[in-house]
Design a protein that fits this description.
Its EC number is 4.1.1.3. The longest helix has about 30 residues. This protein has one domain. The protein is globular, with a radius of gyration of 22 Å. The chain is mostly helical. The protein has 20 helices and no strands.
Length: about 375
């Protein structure tokens, strides 16, 4: 009897919990705190942090691969949707189904701000290569600068599958930390007078324009960068369903049930890749640092182009909207609105910032496709 009790005690996680796993559990708890208490992207951080918690509990085997006829762990099988690049395009379809591209169509020049924010991706690639990453690994790390989790996962799964875990966690973590990272950069690069600029109301965009837009972007973008089609095509198909107004059942399923299910699976399995063995090493630390640099640089280039457009327009454009050029939808646009209202309570920049924000989503998909065609 004592032998059985001793065997049971030895089989518990308490006696098998290592220091690395304990550290990762603390990190998971911090992320969960940010999601629940601070409400930083809770739909993403709650499943990610809990997946991280689950995989670092000893002997659970949730990410164990099925070998030699043995059944693998639950999260291992769900993770195949990430590994095979299935979940990200479905997420993009859901994003497109919720997106109103009207602000970008009404003010096309703001799309340049979304393009400018992608410079953070390409600048970071050179830094990653200088730190010893291969070109393909550097491309996967650099895509974090787009602040678009599905795009980062899609690119990493093809360019550097072995780095998928830390890249995914870094991308989603920085997306959630947009309200902390962006404001200091925005304020450092703009004057008080620039932040107080009130922009004119956007023109009305017709239904015909909104229907033509996703078709035109799919044709132009797909022909330019065919490797971007899984993301770009899914995004535009979701948006087309929204705008045509004749497929309500499909639209509601895409917006709600499908989007929620895939987000749940994606978050849990992304978090589950952050085991102590895979996460606590110098390479992962380098990815986190480079990801922060990429995201910060993308924010800065967007704001700097916004300053240039402010001057060329005779002071009609608030340069803060350039910070929304990163793909963190709609968090980056909300941050622009918040910072703008801190300087001028009557200022309403949200809809103006949504144009660059949506352009950033398109830009990150095209940037990922470009990297895949060059480095893949």
């Amino acid at each position: 009897m004592l032998d059985k009790i001793s065997l049971f005690v030895q089989s518990t996680g308490y006696l098998n919990l290592g220091l690395g796993q304990f550290i990762m559990i603390i990190i998971a708890s911090i992320l969960l705190y940010l999601a629940v208490v601070k409400e930083y992207e809770p739909l993403l951080l709650v499943p990610i942090s809990f997946g991280m918690l689950l995989v670092n509990l000893p002997l659970g085997g949730l990410m164990a691969a099925g070998k030699d006829g043995q059944v693998g762990g639950l999260l291992y099988y769900l993770y195949q949707g990430v590994k095979l690049g299935i979940y990200p395009p479905i997420i993009f379809m859901g994003v497109g189904a919720w997106t109103d591209f009207g602000p970008m169509i009404a003010q096309p020049k703001t799309a340049l701000l979304g393009a400018a924010a992608q410079f953070g991706i390409f600048a970071t690639i050179f830094g990653a290569i200088a730190l010893g990453f291969s070109p393909a690994e550097a491309g996967a790390v650099g895509i974090i600068g787009g602040a678009d989790g599905p795009t980062a996962i899609f690119a990493a799964s093809q360019l550097a599958p072995h780095l998928l875990g830390p890249i995914a966690v870094a991308a989603y973590s920085y997306m959630a930390l947009v309200p902390i990272i962006q404001p200091p950069i925005m304020k450092a690069l703009t004057t008080k007078e620039e932040r107080q600029v009130k922009m004119e109301q956007l023109r009305h965009v017709t239904k015909k324009e909104k229907i033509i837009f996703p078709i035109a972007v799919t044709l132009l973008g797909g022909l330019l960068v065919p490797t971007a089609l899984p993301l770009l095509g899914s995004l535009m198909f979701g948006n087309l369903m929204r705008e045509v107004g004749v497929v309500d059942r499909l639209l509601k399923t895409t917006q709600n049930a499908l989007m929620n299910i895939v987000t749940l699976f994606l978050g849990l399995t992304v978090g589950a890749t952050a085991s102590a063995e895979a996460f606590l090493n110098a390479q992962t630390l380098g990815i986190l640092v480079l990801g922060l640099v990429a995201f910060s640089f993308g924010t800065a280039t967007g704001v700097l182009l916004g300053k240039l457009m402010h001057r060329l327009s005779g002071g009609k454009i608030n340069p803060l909207i350039g910070a929304a050029g990163v793909s963190a939808v709609p968090m980056a646009a909300r941050v622009v609105q918040k910072v703008g209202q801190e300087e001028n309570p009557s200022n309403h920049l949200l809809m103006h910032a949504m144009g660059p924000n949506f352009a950033g989503v398109i830009g990150s998909a095209i940037a990922a496709g470009t990297l895949l065609s060059i480095l893949g």
